[in-house]
Amino acid sequence: MAIYIAREATKLWRKVSAEIAVELQLLFEKWRLLLAGLVFQYIHGLAARGVHYLHRPGPLLQDLGFMALPELGQDKGYLSESVFTFIFISFLLWSFHPFIYHGKRFYTVLLWRRVLAFLVASQFLRIITFYSTQLPGPNYHCREGSKLATLPPPHNVLEVLLINFPRGVLFGCGDLIFSSHMIFTLVFVRTYQKYGSKRLIKLLAWLMAIIQSLLIIASRKHYSVDVVVAWYTVNLVVFFVDNKLPEMPDRTSGLSLLPVTSKDKDVKMKEELHKMEKDSKMKDEFHKLLNGNTVDSTDRRQRVQMNGKHGEETNHTLSDATPNGT
User: Are 54 and 133 in contact (CB under 8 A)?
Assistant: First the structure.
């Protein structure tokens, strides 16, 4: 039993090592885009922190979702956060499964490059939207009478840049339209819908997205409009951005489909041309063998010409040697 475990552990380590080498090569090529996507996550948090300084509490707006769904209460606000955490961690683990499992449909670096592109485009639209109009926050810490509903002017720039993480993120106000939780949720679900392989998990993912939407409204963390706008905006953003990005190579065939650099492409093209020329020569030689002739056509033409010239010289010699009048 110990020998079997040791052998399987060795195989697993080799597999993980090989996958790490491939992903690192991709990371060295795509790190700028990945870094830009991660930096924008901070910019998005900074923008959400900035709009909190502009937030002014007020009476709750009339909302059909609030009328239809009973209020969970402040003590059950963790339910929506628990569902979101489950979705986030599940997607994160699934995105790294090619390091371990045999079934590999994508490269992790290329997948996250795509996901970050979806997130950045959606968050950019979100920043424009919630800065355009500040609504009174429906969350409990954003209502009238709460000390966290408004922020005093910052004493220095550093206070703004540090965004009071994580408290400033958890107790923010004013960044309503549209829901950031739904941006992440829908991007993750749409990505698994395209690159995942389990139909049951795809159905469960969409069900979790719906449950997440209802819990956000029932927890009074967002108005219904924040969730509704997120549903059609994020789906449209993913659709258009996905069509603009180059399609990721499919790894299910088991072939090495690792994207190569331009230098590697030139070398590969030269090798293919050389192979095509070699195949063409082999075909010509094969046809010559079938015709029973192993000499080149140019040599054959030269020999025909020489033979014709030699025949003419022989005829002239014989005619000269024949007596006149016979």
Answer: no
Helix (H) or strand (E) holding 157: helix 157-161
Catalytic residue among 226, 296, 299, 310: 226
**Is 296 assigned a catalytic role?**
no
8-state DSSP, 142: G
The residue assigned the tokens 């380590």 is 13
Predicted local distance difference test score (pLDDT) of residue 303: 47
pTM reported for the whole predicted model: 0.74
Please state the rounded mean pLDDT for residues 9-26: 81
Q: What is the mean pLDDT of residues 132-147?
A: 92
Question: How much is the CA Rg of the chain, to the nearest whole Å?
Answer: 36
Per the annotation, the verdict on 75 as an active-site residue is no
- Residue 222 designated active-site: yes
Which residue in 179, 180, 181, 184 sits closest to 115, CA to CA? 184
φ/ψ (deg, to 5) at 261:
-80, 175
The band of 35, judged by pLDDT with boundaries at 50, 70 and 90, is very high
Collapsed DSSP state (helix, strand, coil) of residue 144 = coil
Provide the pLDDT for residue 166.
Answer: 67
Instruction: Read off the DSSP letter of residue 59.
Output: P
Say which of 102, 222, 242, 316 is annotated catalytic. 222
Active-site option among 97, 181, 250, 274: 181
- Coil vs helix vs strand at 100: coil
Q: Is the pLDDT of residue 38 over 50?
A: yes
Closest CA to 99 of 107, 89, 91: 107
Tell me the pLDDT band of 236, cut-offs 50, 70 and 90: very high
Residue 322, pLDDT above cutoff 90: no
Largest interatomic CA distance in the chain: 143
Q: In the numeric block, which tokens belong to residue 266?
A: 């030139």
* 218: Cβ contacts below 8 Å, ≥ 6 apart: 69, 70, 71, 72, 80
